[in-house]
Amino acid sequence: MSNQLSDRVNNMATSATLAMAAKARELKEAGKDIIGLSLGEPDFTIPEFVKEAAIKAVEENYHSYTPVDGYAELKKSIITKFKRDNNLTYAPSQIVVSTGAKQTLANLAQVLLNEGDEVLLPAPYWVSYADISKVAGGVPVEIKSTIENDFKITPEALEAAITPKTKMMIYSSPCNPSGSVFSRAELRALADVLVKYPKIIVVSDEIYEHINFTDDRVSMAQFEDMYDRTVTVNGVSKAFSMTGWRIGYMGGPEYIARACNKMQGQVTSGANCIAQRATITALENSPSKIQYMIDAFKERRSLILGLLNDIPGFKTNEPEGAFYVFPDVSYYFGKTLKGQTIANASDFALYLLEFAGVATVTGEAFGDPDCIRISYAASENDIKEAMKRIKAALV
Ligand code: PMP
Ligand code: GLU
What we know:
Layout: H1 7-10, H2 16-29, E1 35-36, H3 48-59, H4 72-86, E2 95-98, H5 100-112, E3 118-122, H6 128-135, E4 139-143, H7 155-161, E5 166-172, H8 184-194, E6 201-205, H9 224-227, E7 230-235, E8 248-251, H10 254-267, H11 273-284, H12 291-308, E9 324-325, E10 335-337, E11 340-342, H13 345-355, E12 358-359, E13 361-362, E14 372-375, H14 380-394
Parallel strand pairs: 1-12, 3-4, 3-5, 5-6, 6-7
Antiparallel strand pairs: 2-8, 7-8, 9-14, 10-11, 13-14
The structure holds 4'-deoxy-4'-aminopyridoxal-5'-phosphate and glutamic acid (GLU).
């Protein structure tokens, strides 16, 4: 039978993070000893107080459809969280709860982009931004950065990328995959460019906000002249280790929130009711309750950087947040190791999978073909063993 699939899906790339994780899982199931450092997924269990809230919700018989944009109580705790942690003021009509921040981002692309609209992606960027934009008719426009500049774009590069077709800019800070965190001054310098182009909507993905090892905690929407056209995206996957519970949310201009509500009313009917109840409790608690995870990630960052810097050919910078390192491995391009010619970062990641038994993700998927992404959301033992094996496979 001929392929009856739409051009839309045929032209879409498979998520490189999920594809590598699936490949690693398959190899593990076939009995191979694989250390998975491909997926950005905290290895901690869900905090007890969140588990208890979910159990209580089941016992209290929460079972029916929720309001499409989320329970009123959940919106209230999101509003309190935005005020407490980000000094951002939102009304309930500006909040939408979705099935993971991924759906929040997909909603935004669907409601904001027309065919051919350009989406600025400061590179390296999170893997799904490009295809989420493309499937909504958008055209991703990468803005390059360098490892020497801590993978942060300059205001000049931002301005040079803007055209009359630019509609949206999406970035994460702390950044997946580079771990970079924009300082207030750096973000203000980008805002100074953006204020000249009032039609551009900025999507600030702050899902790693708590996993930030700097004192800079700044949101684009905190700048008064950007508030009306910035959407702040967040979720509980990373901070509360709730990846599988699938709750994300946004705060932003009311007309955009209303459109996202309409969109998901036709697509999902809203997020899971038990997970929403648990999220109320998660967000109402002080971020100090999850400090133990942040402290552990900070220690693992030092551990992995120390070990990586001991491997020839890995050029690293110091990530300031999230739980990834993004080394430049272009030193290996064109070299032949164990009979395998390594032409690019994808070959290199596959080589590490086969000869070191370590799953990473190619930087190509994140808009930087010289790098690979290594997640250190893994145990210290796994990190040590993985680095030992990588070193052995490369010398
Ligand atoms: N944004 C970034 C930068 C991410 O790394 C991820 C991956 N979890 C998401 C959004 C999506 O998160 P969620 O699990 O809430 O869909
Ligand atoms: N965001 C995580 C990552 O980048 C999870 C995988 C995904 O959602 O694509 O690895």
